[in-house]
Amino acid sequence: MTFFNETYPNGSITTELISSPDSNMVVIKASVVPDVERPERRFTGYSQARWDDKSSMVNASAAMENAETSAVGRALAMMGIGIIDSVASADEMRKAEAIVSIAKPADHPDNEFNQSKCQKCGAPIAISSKGNPYCTAKCWLKEDK
Predict the structure, then answer these.
(1) Which of 48, 99, 142, 144 has the smallest number of CB atoms closer than 10 Å to its CB?
(2) What dihedral do alpha carbons 66, 67, 73, 75 form, nearest 10°?
(3) How are strands ordered across the β-sheet holding 43-50?
(4) pLDDT tens figures, 21-80
(5) Could you tell me how far CA 113 lies from the centroid of its own chain?
(6) What is the DSSP-derived secondary structure letter of residue 105?
(7) Going by C-beta distance under 8 Å and a sequence separation of 6 or more, which residues neighbour residue 31?
(8) Where are the alpha helices (DSSP H) in the chain?
(9) Candidate from 13-22, 40-49, 96-105 with smallest mean pLDDT
(10) CB within 8 A of 3, min separation 6: which ones?
(11) Checking DSSP bridges between strand 12-17 and strand 133-135, what pairing results, if any?
Protein backbone atom coordinates (compact mmCIF):
# COMPACT_ATOMS: atom_id res chain seq x y z
CA MET A 1 0.00 0.00 0.00
CA THR A 2 2.93 2.32 0.56
CA PHE A 3 3.87 2.03 -3.11
CA PHE A 4 0.30 2.79 -4.17
CA ASN A 5 -0.01 5.79 -1.86
CA GLU A 6 3.33 7.25 -2.96
CA THR A 7 2.81 6.56 -6.66
CA TYR A 8 -0.88 7.49 -6.87
CA PRO A 9 -1.41 10.38 -4.43
CA ASN A 10 -4.78 11.11 -6.05
CA GLY A 11 -5.82 7.45 -5.76
CA SER A 12 -8.32 5.69 -3.56
CA ILE A 13 -8.69 2.26 -1.98
CA THR A 14 -12.10 1.34 -0.58
CA THR A 15 -13.51 -1.87 0.85
CA GLU A 16 -17.05 -3.11 1.25
CA LEU A 17 -18.52 -5.97 3.27
CA ILE A 18 -20.53 -8.04 0.77
CA SER A 19 -21.68 -10.82 3.10
CA SER A 20 -24.11 -10.42 5.94
CA PRO A 21 -22.36 -9.15 9.12
CA ASP A 22 -23.53 -12.23 11.04
CA SER A 23 -22.56 -14.75 8.34
CA ASN A 24 -19.98 -17.46 9.05
CA MET A 25 -18.28 -16.54 5.76
CA VAL A 26 -16.94 -13.02 5.35
CA VAL A 27 -16.84 -11.70 1.77
CA ILE A 28 -15.07 -8.40 1.11
CA LYS A 29 -14.90 -6.37 -2.09
CA ALA A 30 -12.00 -3.94 -2.56
CA SER A 31 -11.83 -1.25 -5.20
CA VAL A 32 -8.68 0.58 -6.26
CA VAL A 33 -8.92 3.80 -8.25
CA PRO A 34 -5.52 5.17 -9.32
CA ASP A 35 -6.93 8.65 -9.95
CA VAL A 36 -10.20 9.78 -8.38
CA GLU A 37 -10.61 12.29 -11.21
CA ARG A 38 -10.93 9.26 -13.54
CA PRO A 39 -13.13 6.92 -11.43
CA GLU A 40 -14.01 4.80 -14.46
CA ARG A 41 -10.52 3.27 -14.26
CA ARG A 42 -11.17 0.94 -11.36
CA PHE A 43 -9.63 -2.37 -10.26
CA THR A 44 -11.61 -4.76 -8.10
CA GLY A 45 -10.69 -7.70 -5.90
CA TYR A 46 -12.79 -10.01 -3.76
CA SER A 47 -11.80 -12.26 -0.90
CA GLN A 48 -13.54 -14.57 1.51
CA ALA A 49 -12.67 -16.05 4.87
CA ARG A 50 -14.52 -18.24 7.33
CA TRP A 51 -14.58 -17.66 11.07
CA ASP A 52 -14.59 -21.45 11.60
CA ASP A 53 -11.60 -22.17 9.31
CA LYS A 54 -9.61 -24.66 11.39
CA SER A 55 -6.59 -24.39 9.10
CA SER A 56 -6.11 -20.69 9.86
CA MET A 57 -5.45 -19.36 13.35
CA VAL A 58 -5.89 -15.83 11.96
CA ASN A 59 -9.43 -16.42 10.74
CA ALA A 60 -10.62 -17.65 14.12
CA SER A 61 -10.26 -14.15 15.53
CA ALA A 62 -9.82 -11.89 12.49
CA ALA A 63 -11.57 -13.37 9.44
CA MET A 64 -12.92 -9.98 8.38
CA GLU A 65 -9.53 -8.28 8.59
CA ASN A 66 -7.85 -11.18 6.79
CA ALA A 67 -10.44 -11.09 3.99
CA GLU A 68 -10.13 -7.31 3.68
CA THR A 69 -6.34 -7.44 3.42
CA SER A 70 -6.57 -10.16 0.78
CA ALA A 71 -9.23 -8.29 -1.21
CA VAL A 72 -7.10 -5.13 -1.27
CA GLY A 73 -4.07 -7.18 -2.31
CA ARG A 74 -6.07 -8.77 -5.13
CA ALA A 75 -7.37 -5.39 -6.34
CA LEU A 76 -3.83 -3.98 -6.34
CA ALA A 77 -2.63 -7.11 -8.17
CA MET A 78 -5.29 -6.57 -10.84
CA MET A 79 -3.65 -3.18 -11.33
CA GLY A 80 -0.25 -4.88 -11.62
CA ILE A 81 1.08 -3.92 -8.19
CA GLY A 82 2.73 -6.56 -6.03
CA ILE A 83 2.51 -9.51 -8.40
CA ILE A 84 5.23 -11.70 -9.78
CA ASP A 85 3.45 -14.26 -11.90
CA SER A 86 -0.21 -14.33 -10.91
CA VAL A 87 -2.87 -12.66 -8.81
CA ALA A 88 -3.24 -15.70 -6.57
CA SER A 89 -1.98 -15.19 -3.03
CA ALA A 90 0.40 -17.57 -1.32
CA ASP A 91 -2.53 -18.81 0.77
CA GLU A 92 -4.58 -19.52 -2.36
CA MET A 93 -1.64 -21.37 -3.89
CA ARG A 94 -1.22 -23.51 -0.73
CA LYS A 95 -4.94 -24.38 -0.83
CA ALA A 96 -4.71 -25.26 -4.54
CA GLU A 97 -1.62 -27.39 -3.91
CA ALA A 98 -3.42 -29.21 -1.10
CA ILE A 99 -6.33 -29.96 -3.43
CA VAL A 100 -3.96 -31.25 -6.13
CA SER A 101 -2.13 -33.38 -3.55
CA ILE A 102 -5.43 -34.85 -2.39
CA ALA A 103 -6.56 -35.44 -5.96
CA LYS A 104 -3.22 -36.97 -7.01
CA PRO A 105 -0.83 -38.78 -4.68
CA ALA A 106 2.67 -37.30 -4.39
CA ASP A 107 4.16 -40.13 -6.44
CA HIS A 108 1.55 -39.87 -9.22
CA PRO A 109 3.40 -39.09 -12.49
CA ASP A 110 1.02 -36.23 -13.35
CA ASN A 111 1.36 -34.49 -9.98
CA GLU A 112 3.18 -31.39 -11.23
CA PHE A 113 3.60 -30.03 -7.70
CA ASN A 114 5.76 -32.93 -6.56
CA GLN A 115 7.81 -33.89 -9.63
CA SER A 116 10.84 -31.74 -8.88
CA LYS A 117 12.56 -29.65 -6.25
CA CYS A 118 14.10 -26.17 -6.37
CA GLN A 119 17.83 -26.49 -6.93
CA LYS A 120 18.50 -23.50 -4.66
CA CYS A 121 16.41 -24.37 -1.57
CA GLY A 122 14.90 -27.82 -2.15
CA ALA A 123 11.25 -26.66 -1.98
CA PRO A 124 8.75 -28.24 -4.38
CA ILE A 125 8.43 -26.70 -7.83
CA ALA A 126 4.93 -25.63 -8.89
CA ILE A 127 3.54 -24.56 -12.24
CA SER A 128 2.01 -21.08 -12.53
CA SER A 129 -1.23 -20.34 -14.34
CA LYS A 130 0.95 -19.31 -17.30
CA GLY A 131 2.70 -22.68 -17.33
CA ASN A 132 5.96 -21.44 -15.81
CA PRO A 133 7.71 -23.47 -13.09
CA TYR A 134 8.53 -21.65 -9.86
CA CYS A 135 9.82 -22.38 -6.36
CA THR A 136 6.88 -22.67 -3.96
CA ALA A 137 9.05 -21.20 -1.18
CA LYS A 138 9.75 -18.21 -3.45
CA CYS A 139 13.38 -18.35 -2.34
CA TRP A 140 14.36 -15.86 -5.05
CA LEU A 141 12.55 -13.18 -3.03
CA LYS A 142 14.60 -13.80 0.11
CA GLU A 143 17.94 -12.12 0.64
CA ASP A 144 21.00 -14.35 0.50
CA LYS A 145 22.77 -14.33 3.84
Answers:
(1) 144
(2) -160
(3) 12-17, 25-33, 43-50
(4) 888 999 999 999 999 999 999 999 999 999 888 777 788 888 899 999 999 999 998 888
(5) 18
(6) -
(7) 12, 13, 14, 15, 16, 42, 43, 44, 75
(8) 2-7, 57-78, 90-103
(9) 96-105
(10) 81, 82
(11) unpaired
